[in-house]
Amino acid sequence: MVNLTKLLGLERRNPKDDDGTMGLYSKDGLFFKTSIWKVVTIAKLFWRYGWDIKRIGEWVTTMMSSFSRIYEYQEKGMAFTTVEDMLKAMDEQFINYTRISAQTMFKDAGFSEIFINELVMSAMRVNYGQTTDTHGFVAAVSMAGVESGLWSVKGGNKNVAESLLKASGARLIQGKVTNINMMKSATGMPSYEVQYEKAGQQADQEESIAEYDLVIMATPLDGNAKMKVVFEGFPSTFNIPNIPFHSLEAMFVCGHVNLSTFGMDQQDELPDSIMTTNAEVFFNSIGLLEPVDEISNKAGKPEESEEYGVWKVFLNKVPTEAEVQALFDTRKSVQLVNWLAYPQYQPTKELPSFVLYDRLYFINAIEAAASAMEMSVIGAKNVALLAYNQWYSHLDKIDEVLVPSDSSQDSAQGKQAQESVKSEEL
Ligand SMILES: CC(C)=CCC/C(C)=C/CC/C(C)=C/CSC[C@H](N)C(=O)O
Questions:
Q1: Could you tell me the mean pLDDT of each successive run of 10 residues in the chain, 426 residues long?
Q2: What is the pTM of this model?
Q3: DSSP summary character for residue 353
Q4: Of 200, 240, 233, 249, which Cα lies nearest the Cα of 219?
Q5: ipTM of the complex
Q6: Is 142 in the pocket of ligand 1 (CB under 6 A)?
């Protein structure tokens, strides 16, 4: 993301000097709150979680050091056919992490139950709407996501996709792909007929068709009727991956938080973000938003008498009126957005392939390991390199493994990688 945003001439939004305060909420109420004073926060964290607080930073840095090998591969034009091959090339351990639960992975790494049940759990709830029953690799990415230092793009992260489209010079057809039909040419190589409904057209109007030598899919394939694409003309052995997705509700509220729910009397006692530690709590997280163009005052929290704040709440289902009322006592506006946000993760023995068929590629395969903006750009670059290498028969650049670089550099590399990848704030 760092290179991509530089390439596109995008600016980082001014980083805040702190990440604001954070609270942890369980079904019994708010039980932990960080302070505006860093030293107090560190003391409180050490008091509750002991040395795990320090160890997690080191653990994530080590993971990132291995993870950052992907940039070395991609720099050399090398690509991978499957997510499994890609993870193994970064670090043999990574594949094991996809096979066990997050709970087991962190327990085996020596982290305490309280640390796993509260901090790993709350990170999984806010980042993936899930629990520590997911596989370990996605939980590692999730922990990387809660370490400080996240940054976002000035004007909004959506500028990345928009600028990329402009810079690529590609012709965008706005529509919904309904069918991909394989046709064999005289040489035996497949080509593809892509059928789509142009946006705004009525379903009963004539569909549009275009023929391509090579097709790259960048969409979740979760077997859900809403996004179903029909594949025709393929042999009966052709299998489309079915990766079930997690349906998430994002609720944006301009209003005042109901302080009594969080056991507070004063607005300024309220943390800027509240994460939850039980799947039974009806919301996953709540956080104060800031404008994408500027940094507002201090933590951006409005005084009682001032304007309303804009809050983002993640939930796994549409809230009832009583639930919205429990979170906000005054509301100026409420907007609910539902989408299939990321896979529903569980330990797995099978990770999908980036290749669905000859010359038919699937970027979102990478989401089975972990879904994040950084993962998407890595997946997209991998598919671009793979398609190129296959087209020009550069077979020496496919599924090859480099000897890991000098381990003495690992920690420095990990820190550098941490800086490069943590480019997301939803
Ligand atoms: C293997 C490790 C420790 C790190 C991998 C590097 C990586 C991909 C870091 C990204 C961290 C991050 C910002 C995670 C956010 S979680 C997903 C997010 N909420 C979203 O919806 O995209």
A1: 91 74 96 96 97 97 96 97 98 97 98 98 98 98 87 91 93 92 87 90 69 94 78 91 93 96 92 96 95 57 63 98 96 95 96 96 97 96 98 97 64 53 49
A2: 0.90
A3: B
A4: 240
A5: 0.95
A6: yes
